[in-house]
Amino acid sequence: MALLPILRYPDPRLHTVAKPVAEVDARIQRLVDDMLETMAQADGVGLAATQVDVHLRLIVIDTSEGRDPPRVLINPEITARSAEMQTSDEGCLSVPTIYDQVQRHARVSVRAQDRDGQWQNFDAEGLAAVCVQHEMDHLLGKVFVEYLSPLKRERIKTKMLKKTRDESPRAGRR
Ligand code: NI
After folding, report:
1. pTM of the predicted model over 0.90
2. Which of 9, 13, 107, 167 has the most beta carbons within 10 angstroms of its beta carbon?
3. How far, in Å, is the centroid of ligand 1 from the Cα of 142?
4. How is residue 56 annotated by DSSP?
5. From residue 7, how far is each of 42, 47, 48, 149, 158 by CA, in Å?
């Protein structure tokens, strides 16, 4: 397994729309394993393939704090959404240190293929529901900061560009 570099907002590649996974083969399973390792190492609750610059419909989520194995969702589709909404603080591995309130459906029903390519159905609520909707947005090229006001988004963009510059090993050597 290998750790994969995570794209950071406002990298334009984060706005790529992912394509369906045609076949769950060894290459896809390897990507899944690398994404699981990358998510765990970054202490994240979810990761979309988009964030590691692979533009395929594949996400991993782990909202159980170690009680259950992480979920692998290949070609995920939301089949039902609750009318009830919930607002919660969201963060993103592609927008480190930024958290803000986003409104989502409180419950969603999801259909997706697992790591073996088998179709599974499940219902998610609470953090898992937030996470599924957040990660599926990534597959459409959407980052959660796009729900915030243009002013907040501009501030976040500036902060992220500065952070990336400050962390660069070349910083100060120009
Ligand atoms: Ni995210």
Report:
1. yes
2. 9
3. 9
4. B
5. 13, 11, 11, 22, 16
Tens of pLDDT along the chain (174 residues)?
Answer: 799 999 999 999 999 999 999 999 999 999 999 999 999 999 999 999 999 999 999 999 999 877 889 999 999 999 999 999 999 999 999 999 999 999 999 999 999 999 999 999 999 999 999 999 999 999 999 999 999 999 999 999 999 999 999 988 765 555
Is-contact 34 27, C-beta < 8 A?
no
Report the separation in Å between the CA atom of 50 and the middle of ligand 1, taken as the mean of its atom positions: 9
Active site residues: 135
Quote the ligand 1 centre to 173 CA distance (angstroms). 32
List, in sequence order, every beta strand (DSSP E) within the chain. Answer: 46-48, 58-61, 71-81, 85-90, 100-105, 107-113, 119-125
